[in-house]
């Protein structure tokens, strides 16, 4: 029986609890009802007893008082016996004032005995006379016995009723509720993360649906669906967590999480490796403490790191961290603070920055050195000069310009210009004394600094500069072409010319500028007045950038005459610039600067338009008039150059045959098919092309055959020197013959004497140009010259 109850308790605990609750509640209720019933019945019986006594009192009281008054003992005894025989009266006793006692029945010792006394008296005219006191012992045991029997009966009946009702209720609950709950419990017990159970179902008719049990089933099904969804999310989170852990352990970043009590919470494998802990071991608080002492000893270890992180939100430090002797490394370690579910946590991020530091060192080297040559750049050179001046203020600074760099860049391209620069730098380094500094400051300019010899300071620098220039007398070979480096050098000496690197460099550049004005392959020492020339150059650059040249520029014209007749066949348009502040600015000063600033396009377009407009006017006076206009290689390389030429011709109405464009040899050296196509398109339009300054550059005979030129202009340096050097004279004659052989006309510029003119005429040079005939002049003056229609050769012959 006990075993069966134990099994029921394990299999149906809720049923037993409900049954026990019903039994307890029913029993308590039945007990309360029984007590109420028994109490009411008991009280009715006692009330009935009291009512009987009350009804009998007048009779036995009067009878007994009469017997006592008569002093009739027999009658007294009789009355007491009659009273005792009444229900529930166990004893009746009388005690008179004289002390006499009478009784009927025996005294009882029961706990249910109560006593009731009645005073007896005789009323007379004189007043009431006491006769004694009647005492009754009332025995209520029978009433209590009846109460007990009724109580037992009621309890038995109520218990039986409670059991029957409870069983019925339990059966109904099992039928309507418990069996379905057991089925739901069974379904719920099958749910796991890997195998969610089927939906919660039970066997109920449709009429029984839509009640609380159905609501529970629906809630369980909804919970099951949420469980399935949460299980999927948990699976996804688990996968992400596993992958994050894998990434954290296989990545390069070292991570360590600890709390404010300096207790480690998590450390990935890279951080364990950082600490020298095996991957399967845990990082303990002692290891964490030692880490804090190692990374921040000046801050008191880990507590100081925590304090600083709290105040600044992030703590960071770079440390030298040798993993072992074979792996010295630098690490960057940062500490950040965050909260997780209210708990304050800290995380260390540590990464190996050895490669980054090496990269920064390389970057710093690149920032301080020229990428092509590997030489120090301007900033590093100036800093080095300042350091040298601290040790010894006797220092020479040389600014070196490779004049042919720009020409090679325009003609052969950047690759060959860089090759030229590398070869020049290598040769200069070989010829510099030990301890000298060589740096590259701009594209074609170098800066050299070297200590001065105390006994012969200026003389030693002069010899060094001269030797450098002589070294480059021998041409360099580039693209099977001989290239003259053509160096210019400017020299500033400390302490006379400056006491810091920046000042010395400025003065050396000023001297270099003067050296360039003096011609290639020369050097100059700085003089105070050179600063004015450099300031003038900077002012010219500023004016060019502002566009003021376009307002102040003028075009002058120099006649080109026929050698046989001396008649003017045309002229060359030459730019002239007069500024109120700087006065006359020569083309040598502003053309090169405009090309450097990439402003030559606008200036060249303006000159071309003005020249064509003026030539169209002169064309009415001389129908075969031709005007020559110089074109910069940068203009020709511009994609819109053909459009510029067309616009100038359309604007002026000048026929294309009346225009000659002069280009330098540098343009030909590029070997660019686009340039060749442009030249051919210009020729196709009827525009003549002239090679300007022939002989001063690097053009070969091959270029004369490849490009569609109609004329060749011999550089004035050959004309000026042809009577001083027989080889130059023969070279001029050979050039003229070669040009004629190729079908080219020849123009000689720089004709300054009648002898020049006569010699060239004898060599059958068709066209002459130079001061012997006329200097460049404004358009008005040139117009008057055309109006004279006289032979310039005759005129100059008469003057001579």
UniProtKB/TrEMBL annotation:
Start and end residues of each GGDEF domain: 393-528
Residues annotated as transmembrane: 21-40, 151-173
Swiss-Prot/TrEMBL keywords: Membrane, Transmembrane, Transmembrane helix
Matches recorded under Pfam families: CHASE5, EAL, GGDEF, PAS_9
SMART domains, per the entry: EAL, GGDEF
InterPro entries in the cross-refs: Cyclic-di-GMP_PDE-like (IPR050706), EAL_dom (IPR001633), EAL_sf (IPR035919), GGDEF_dom (IPR000160), Nucleotide_cyclase (IPR029787), PAS (IPR000014), PAS-like_dom_sf (IPR035965), Rev_trsase/Diguanyl_cyclase (IPR043128)
SUPFAM superfamilies: EAL domain-like, Nucleotide cyclase, PYP-like sensor domain (PAS domain)
Molecular function GO labels: cyclic-guanylate-specific phosphodiesterase activity
Boundaries of every EAL domain copy: 537-790
Protein name, per record: Diguanylate cyclase (GGDEF) domain-containing protein
């Amino acid at each position: 029986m006990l075993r069966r109850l134990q099994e029921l308790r394990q299999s149906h605990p809720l049923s037993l609890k409900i049954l026990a609750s019903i039994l307890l509640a029913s029993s308590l209720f039945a007990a309360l009802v029984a007590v109420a019933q028994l109490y009411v019945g008991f009280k009715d019986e006692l009330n009935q007893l009291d009512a009987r006594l009350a009804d009998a009192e007048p009779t036995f009281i009067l009878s007994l008082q009469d017997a006592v008054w008569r002093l009739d003992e027999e009658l007294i005894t009789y009355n007491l016996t009659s009273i005792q025989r009444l229900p529930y009266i166990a004893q009746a006793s009388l005690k008179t004032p004289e002390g006499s006692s009478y009784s009927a029945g025996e005294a009882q010792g029961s706990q249910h005995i109560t006593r009731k006394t009645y005073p007896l008296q005789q009323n007379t005219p004189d007043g009431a006379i006491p006769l004694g006191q009647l005492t009754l012992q009332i025995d209520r045991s029978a009433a209590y016995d009846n109460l007990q029997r009724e109580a037992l009966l009621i309890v038995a009946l109520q218990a039986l009723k409670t059991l029957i009702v409870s069983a019925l209720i339990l059966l109904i609950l099992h039928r309507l509720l418990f069996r379905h709950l057991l089925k739901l419990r069974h379904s719920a017990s099958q749910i796991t993360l890997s195998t969610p159970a089927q939906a919660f179902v039970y066997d109920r008719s449709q009429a029984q649906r839509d009640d609380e049990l159905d609501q529970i089933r629906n809630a369980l099904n909804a919970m099951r669906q949420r469980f399935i969804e949460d299980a999927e999310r948990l699976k996804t989170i688990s996968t992400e967590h596993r992958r994050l852990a894998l990434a954290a352990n296989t990545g390069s970043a070292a991570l360590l999480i600890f709390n404010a009590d300096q207790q480690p919470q998590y450390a990935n494998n890279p951080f364990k490796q950082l600490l020298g802990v095996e991957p399967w071991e845990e990082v303990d608080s002692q290891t964490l403490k030692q880490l804090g002492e190692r990374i921040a000893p000046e801050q008191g270890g880990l507590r100081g790191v925590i304090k600083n992180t709290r105040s600044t939100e992030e703590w960071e430090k770079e440390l030298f961290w040798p993993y072992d002797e074979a792996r010295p490394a630098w690490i960057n370690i940062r500490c950040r603070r965050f909260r997780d579910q209210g708990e304050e946590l800290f995380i260390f991020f540590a990464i190996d920055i050895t490669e980054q530091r090496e990269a920064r060192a390389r970057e710093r080297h690149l920032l301080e050195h020229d990428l092509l040559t590997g030489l120090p750049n301007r900033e590093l050179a100036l800093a080095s000069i300042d350091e040298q001046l601290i040790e010894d203020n006797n220092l020479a600074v040389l600014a070196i310009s490779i004049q042919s760099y720009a020409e090679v860049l325009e003609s052969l391209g950047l690759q060959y210009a860089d090759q030229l620069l590398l070869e020049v730098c290598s040769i200069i380094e070989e010829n510099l004394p030990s301890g000298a500094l060589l740096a590259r400051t701009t594209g074609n300019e170098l800066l050299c600094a070297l200590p001065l010899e105390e006994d012969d300071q200026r003389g030693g620098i002069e010899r060094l500069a001269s030797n450098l220039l002589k070294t480059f007398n021998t041409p360099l070979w580039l693209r099977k072409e001989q290239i003259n480096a053509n160096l210019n050098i400017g020299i500033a000496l400390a302490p006379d010319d400056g006491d810091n690197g920046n000042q010395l460099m400025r003065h050396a550049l000023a001297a270099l500028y003067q050296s360039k004005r003096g011609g290639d392959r020369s050097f100059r020492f700085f003089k105070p007045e050179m600063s004015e020339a450099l300031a003038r150059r900077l002012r010219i650059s500023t004016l060019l950038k502002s566009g003021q040249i376009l307002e102040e520029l003028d075009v002058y014209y120099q006649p080109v005459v026929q050698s046989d007749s001396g008649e003017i066949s045309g002229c060359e348009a030459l730019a002239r610039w007069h500024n109120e502040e700087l006065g006359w600015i020569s083309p040598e000063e502003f053309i090169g600067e405009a090309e450097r600033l990439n402003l030559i396009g606008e200036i060249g377009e303006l000159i071309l338009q003005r020249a064509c407009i003026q030539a169209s006017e002169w064309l009415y006076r001389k129908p075969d008039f031709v005007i020559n206009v110089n074109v910069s290689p940068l203009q020709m390389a511009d994609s819109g150059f053909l459009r510029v030429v067309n616009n100038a011709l359309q604007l002026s109405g000048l026929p294309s045959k009346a225009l000659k464009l002069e280009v330098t040899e540098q343009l030909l050296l590029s070997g660019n098919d686009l340039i060749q196509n442009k030249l051919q398109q210009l020729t196709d339009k009827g525009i003549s092309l002239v090679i300007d300054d022939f002989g001063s550059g690097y053009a070969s005979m091959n270029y004369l055959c490849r490009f569609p030129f109609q004329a060749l202009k011999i550089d004035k340096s050959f004309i000026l020197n042809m009577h001083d050097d027989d080889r130059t004279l023969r070279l001029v004659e050979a050039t003229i013959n070669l040009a004629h052989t190729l079908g080219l006309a020849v123009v000689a510029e720089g004709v300054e004497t009648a002898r020049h003119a006569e010699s060239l005429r004898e060599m059958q040079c068709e066209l002459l140009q130079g001061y012997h005939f006329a200097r460049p002049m404004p358009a008005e003056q040139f117009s008057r010259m055309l109006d004279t229609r006289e032979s310039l050769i005759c005129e100059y012959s008469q003057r001579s």
